[in-house]
Design goal:
By secondary structure, the chain is an all-alpha fold. It is about 90% helix and about 0% strand.
């Protein structure tokens, strides 16, 4: 009887430790994922958006750039 209770206690203790480790790993992964997503969304995306807008404004001011004959020939040749 006492052996059975100690076995249940040991199994329960090991289960709680394993569940704690698994949940801490899952929490770390989610934390890293949300941190990376936040960095990309709030730090990188605005810089890319501003760069894209500036390039579009320069392109509009310059006019649409036409390909030179040599460039067009190179593209059509498939090299």
């Amino acid at each position: 009887m006492l052996g059975t209770l100690l076995t249940f206690f040991a199994v329960g203790l090991v289960t709680l430790v394993v569940i704690g480790v698994v949940l801490s790993i899952v929490g770390t992964v989610f934390s890293l994922a949300f941190g990376l997503a936040g960095f990309l969304l709030f730090k990188v995306a605005p810089v890319i958006l501003v760069g894209w807008i500036v390039l579009k404004l320069f392109e509009r001011r310059r006019g649409s750039a036409e390909l030179s004959a040599a460039d067009r020939e190179w593209l059509e040749s498939g090299r």
